[in-house]
Amino acid sequence: MTQIRVLLVDDEPLIRAGLRMILDGAGGIAVVGEAADGLDAAARIADLHPHVVLMDVRMPRCDGVEATRTIRARTHPPTVVMLTAFDTDDFLLRALDAGASGFLLKHTPPAELVAAVQQAADGAMSFSPSVLQRLVTHATRA
């Protein structure tokens, strides 16, 4: 894959602009579009053909979990990585159940965000360290 195509989905224009600056400046990554909610994101997939979708969890009209479920149900779907400020087990588990391939917090350093997009494009899962720790703790509670 020569260039990773990314769709940014967040209801905050300032967040999308910051993400675009980080990712477009990384080399090997192109932000091919933006969406302000899950409905718009799901509709734009066919036209934009992203490899990776960076998806906010909480948005109006259609949240990121439902949008992820819709996107991942498509034939040859892109990878979806959740990017959120809401660090809760409920969001994490629902996102993974919907087909998300990663869960990053919005305070993730830029270099780690770029690495997570690259990993997602390669088929690997990416998690913020605190999220991964909680996921392992949750999985081993049995």
Which key features would you list for this structure?
single chain, 142 residues, alpha/beta, 6-stranded parallel sheet, 6 helices, 6 strands, 46% helix, globular
Molecular structure report:
The structure is a single chain. With 142 residues, the chain is α/β, with parallel strands linked by helices. Helices cover 46% and strands 20% of the residues. The chain has six helices and six strands. Strands 2-1-3-4-5-6 form a six-stranded parallel sheet, with helices on both faces. Helix 3 links the parallel strand 3 and strand 4. Helix 3 runs parallel beside helix 4. It starts with a strand and ends with a helix. 38% of the residues are buried. The model has no long low-confidence stretch (mean pLDDT 89).
